[in-house]
Amino acid sequence: MSLELQQLQKHLQNEVSKLRSNVTLDINLERSRATEAHALNEKQLQVLHNKIDTEVANLRTTYEKYRNDVMKYSADKTLYTITTRNRLSLITA
Hints:
Layout: H1 2-92
Subcellular location: Membrane; Mitochondrion
Family: Belongs to the CCDC90 family.
Keywords: Coiled coil, Membrane, Mitochondrion, Transmembrane, Transmembrane helix
């Protein structure tokens, strides 16, 4: 009877050991998958961040261009107005 109990105990210990090994393997596999998924998400996030940076730079460039065009137009109109007034004042004087 004692021999049977020892064999049963040994068998149970082996089964528990196998279960622990399987659980450890599953945990490690899941950890590896999570790490890979995180790395992929980080890569995709960086790609999106780069796209946003590019779009912001393009918008700034466009803004600067239009701002400079408005400044040139305003300066031209101001200079034209001053020149026209000076001519008119010379004619009427």
